[in-house]
Structures are given as structure tokens and as C-alpha cells.
Amino acid sequence: MSRYRELLGVAFAGLAARKSRTLLIMLGPTLGVAAIIAAVGLTDSAKGDLKLKLRELGTDLIVAEASSSFGTDTPKMPTDAVPRALSVPTVDRVAAVSELSGVVVTPYAEAIGVYETVPIPVLAADAQLPSVLDVTMLSGRWLNDFDQQELVRSAVIGEGLADEIDVLAGESRSIDVGGKAYTVVGILEQVELDPSLNNAVFITFGSAEADFNDEDQEPNKLYVRADPGTERDTSSILPIAITLGGSTEVAAKIPTDLLEAQSETDTTLQFIVAGMGLLALVVGAVGIANVMSISVIQRSSEIGIRRALGHSRSTVGLQFLLEALGVGILGGLLGVVVGLAAMWVGTNLADWVFVLQPWLPWAGLLGAIIVSMLAGIVPALKAARLEPLETLRLG
Known about the structure:
Elements: H1 2-17, H2 19-57, E1 61-67, H3 81-86, E2 91-100, E3 105-106, H4 112-117, E4 122-125, H5 129-133, E5 137-140, H6 145-150, E6 154-158, H7 159-164, E7 173-177, E8 180-188, E9 201-203, H8 205-212, E10 221-226, H9 231-243, E11 249-253, H10 256-298, H11 300-308, H12 313-350, H13 359-384, H14 388-394
Parallel strand pairs: 4-9, 6-8
Antiparallel strand pairs: 1-10, 1-11, 2-4, 2-10, 3-7, 5-8, 6-9, 7-8
Helix pairs in contact: 1-12, 2-10, 2-12, 2-13, 10-13, 11-14, 12-13
């Protein structure tokens, strides 16, 4: 036991005596382990954030949208599309919207030239939209039946648009919608499942018909909440229920499918970056082998003295293996710390949930130790084969 304690002392003294060399050969394991932990940890955190969003938003939202195989500019659904959708037994709630074309929105009339190039979406919407989307008002109120019946020029804007045109929460403000002044009565909170709504202006169907000749109040999109667990079946039935075999074409999709697809993409990225981390470990192993091989030649006098004092080949070889072990442990620990720090910074910048698999730091540390030990085998064998007389020639 005392022999092994002595060897450990000699090995770690050797590492401490050559700090610059030790830091250089530690760089490979450190970068490799840090890259693996950061890659796996950040993608797991992204997935955790997506799962949290799915739990909060629910997977029962379906979007049914009018489409056309003949390239119609603004395909529409039947006027009674909402009652038809509600006739499906598994449908709980429905809200309708209709996008208006050719209507330019500006903070004020003089800015029309700026907003004509990239127009702000204008949507006619019914009173049920926030409840179906499960979103709340950031400030103010949503459009109501009074606005619809009395043709009040009231508008609600998305949170993103409010930031863009500097509308403050609770501020009394009007905007120019197609040359007519509409009062902003509320700001809608961000809609995670349909980000396009975050930069839109919402008005009533009645105002759309009266001011912009949007006749018949035909929607082109329905937001539908289905009973939990029936999303797939409901999405396949909805187009049939809405069209009733007519010429109207309707496509139904589940927005959360996009989040799940994004999660799969993150998994692919995880494997790519983790592979780069493994490559860094391999390159680091080559560096360890090269530097330690050169170290054997530089320390030939030390090896010769130890052999002359009676140390066996195995003892000398074990000393260099222990040095490689020390590099692996120190480099692995530093890599774990750097990787966790990168995860912490990344999750805070992206506002994700911090998710760390318990096995990940241990796997990174073990990988660094194994790679370093394998890289130290050749230099250890080279040192063990040196004869005392040969060390005089090398020294």
C-alpha cells in the first residue's frame, strides 16, 4: 500500500512540477467533456421547456384553414362554419377569424409608406378567440358583442405589435386601419401556438364588413378546442364537417405537432454536437499521447535514476499511467464545471427550464478518465522499456 501511495505522490508531483504542460494536455479532455455536457444538457433543457409549454398550452388545439387547389387569393369557409364545427361531438369550443387583404395598418396616417411594404395582418375575429386560444389580455379588454352589433371601431393588437409601435399597457391610443381611426381597447398576450397572431390587429366581423366590404363574414380560419385525447380523430373529421362535401377545401392541423417536430430536430443537433465533443476527446487523447511521449524523453534522466535505485519496469510504467489518470480526472472535472456553466448561461439566455440528467456529469468524467488512460498507455510502455544506460544517451 505504501508503494502505491509513493507512486501517487510522485505522479502528482510530476504533474504539479510542469504546470504549463499539464494544463495543455488537460485542454483536450476539458473541451471534450464540456462540449458533450453542454450539447446534451442544453438540448434536454430545450426539450424540457417544450414539454412544459405543451403541458401549459395543451395539445387539444386544432387549426382548420381554408385552402384552394386553384390558387384562389383568399379562400373562404362557409358562413356557418362555426356551427358546423360545433356539430362534431368531440369539439368543445370554436373561434373564427378572417384575414382582410389590402388593408394597411399604421400607427398614424403619415406612416403609411413604411407599412405598405410589409403590411401588418388585419383579422376579423369573434368574441370567443381568447378563450379558445387560452390566452389572457395583457391590458384592456377583448372585442365584445356591443362592438360587433354597433359597429364600434374598436381594435385589439398583439403584444409584438404593441412593442413595435410603442403602445403602452393601459394607454388610450388609436391606430390607422385602412384610412380609418380605430381605438386600441386591449393588448393580447403572446400566443405560443400561433406566433403570427402576436403582430396582428383584430377587429370585429361587423366592422370588417362595414368599413372594408368584407361581405358575408365568411371566416378563412377556425381555432378549435377538442376533447382531450380526441385531437387526431377530430382533426380528420373537421374538414368533412365544415365542407359537407362542397367545393370548399379545408386543411386541419395540430400546432403542437410543430413543437414535437422541433424536439426531434433538437435531438439530431444533440447527437451532432455530442459527436463533436467525442471528437475533441479523441484529439485530446492524441495530444496527451504526444506530449507524454516527449515527456518520457525529457525525463529520461529521472527514469534512469529510478531504475538504478531498483524500481521495476512496471513501477515506472505505472507512474506514467497515474499521471495520465490525474490528467483525466482534473480535465474531466474542469470539463464538467465548464459544461455546467455553459448550460446555466444558455438556459438563462434562452429562458429555458434547466434540465440535467444525473448520469451526465459522471459519464463525462468517466469518459475523460478512460480516454486519458488509453492515451497514456503508449508513453507508459515507452518509459518502462528504457534501460538505465540508455537514459544516459537520451539525457
